[in-house]
Amino acid sequence: MKFEFLFGHVRFMSRSRTVAIKAQNTAMTSKKKKNQKPVIKEETSQKEQPSLHFFQDPAETTLFRSQLLEWYDANKRDLPWRTLAMTEPDLNIRTYAVWVSEIMLQQTQVSTVIDYYNRWMKRWPTVEKLSKATLEEVNQMWAGLGYYSRGRRLHEGAQKVVSNLGGQMPKTTATLLKQLPGVGRYTAGAIGSIALGQVTGAVDGNVIRVLSRVRAIGADCNSPVVTDALWKIADTLVDPKRPGDFNQAMMELGARICTPKSALCTQCPVQTHCHAFRKVGIKQETVKKHLSKLSSNLKDDVPDIENCVGGGCSLCLSETWNVQLGVQNYPRKPVVHVFSHIHQTYIVFLVHVSECSEEQQQRSCWLTKPALQNAAVSTGVKKIFKLYESSNMANKEKKRKASPMKRSNKRTDPWLLVYSPIPIICIFLCYLGIIWIGPKLMKNAEPVNLKVVLILYNFAMVGLSVYMFHEFLITSWTANYSYLCQPVDYSTSPLGMRMASVCWWFFFSKVIELSDTVFFILRKKNSQLTFLHVYHHGTMIFNWWAGVKFVAGGQCTIFHRSVKHFCPYCDVFLLWACSPGTPDAEIFVVEALPHLAAAGKHKTNLNISIHSKATLLGTPLH
Fold first, then answer.
1. Whether the Cβ atoms of residue 146 and residue 107 lie closer than 8 Å to each other
2. Does pTM surpass 0.70?
3. Domain-terminating residue out of 312, 335, 358
4. Could you give the count of Cα atoms lying within 13 Å of 505 in the half-sphere of its Cβ?
5. What domain range includes position 290?
6. What is the pLDDT of residues 443-493, one digit of tens each?
7. Catalytic pick among 102, 252, 306, 586
8. Which of 366, 373, 527, 566 is 20 to 30 Å from the Cα of 355, by its Cα?
9. What CDD domains does the entry give (predicted)?
């Protein structure tokens, strides 16, 4: 029983009928109230009213159809399966195309399905071609959509159509339901109405929500009674001239307007038929205390939305209206805790692997980046790869914006002369100072005899060149370097550190080779102090400092330079060690710099030239 006081009137609602009780004058004595019998006026019983939950007025049904289809024609989304359903003249292909779309759309959002659908139809445009595919190919194409049993059923159904039905898709809703695996009542209704023009309803989650709100069905929508009622309403409403468009319009309305939360009721094309929307309006007026005006304006032919509450109706709300929910009171679903959807948390580690054991190879499958994009891997794996890619991009952007010192190769920072450019700058300034003041100091002095020093110096440089050549060659060969283009290796692996170490030795040799200039000055060979000589020695120390500081590994084809240094140093060593006096030959090398050609009185294509007491303008061999 429920009582509602309306300014001097009491409305009494029971299971079978609604009555209005005329209240007596409030100034009467309590005794008179007790003895006074109320004047009872029976109103129209529920059995005489139009049913609250069904469409019984043909005019209302026709208006509902026209309003919904008009909205659909103006607002429908352009989806590939809709285009195929409208333009494909072949009934068999049209039915197959709609079947594929409906299976893909189960438990998956439209935005996700579009790309998969286009790729699927491009690869298997007919049921015959799908039947010839392998299950592995189907699973690979399906990877990322989830619920892989759907793809398997599509494949199984295609093989059944080809083998049992002669390649012809079923032509009615009943045969679709009976002959295709994985096709239920809704899927059969959707395919039948959209592809075959069958006048049948299609009730999915969106349609359930729309119909529950339009007809104020608040009971559990999973119960058999409610399910039957919803299908009955859907079959009544479907437009016989455009059944496919009507069913898609209902789905579109539920997906875009009559959403589970935050429904856009003001934009709904059928709001005038919606009992839930009307009830929201009534409750809002109640809150504003306009009941007296509202009760006088309500028409007698409008069904009383309250008349089933608490009255045992199997389609009504089993509890009172929740004002905060509004239209979300319909449909009212039981609270169910679902254990089938497991939330997984991945902890991702990035590991650089140069090789793997035979046991690992048997249990693993290594993929390149392009292969991973098309591989049959789960969405979780693809999310991990996307995280890896975004992390790489973020790190690259961070390094790009960081200062040069922060972007340096941290492996070589502790090594001599590497951490900061200041020591190298100081050495270079001292070098320039020696070049400027050295010849002046030696102007009136005798040349210094450096035979023993030069023998030891060249012998040491020969040994260092041999060592560097060996290390460059063996390390690059062992690490499978490409001698055309090799990516930079920043790893701390043994081979990576070995290559970085020999790069440092090459850099340090450039510092040692500044001694060549000092030897020229002490021996008063000032003619050899050319611009090219100074330019070469000065730039090499900075180039190799930067290389060791920021690269030191990879892109290495320079071991041939060690050979070039080895041969001349060996020649000079032999000349100085074996000749009885000062050798009559000076050895020079013309460096092949990409941006600076060697210029002078003599031009040669040879890297090494020997001239007797020559004054060849070029870089002297060290």
1. yes
2. no
3. 335
4. 20
5. 51-74+205-237+261-335
6. 889 999 888 998 898 889 889 989 988 888 888 888 777 766 666 777 788
7. 102
8. 373
9. ENDO3c
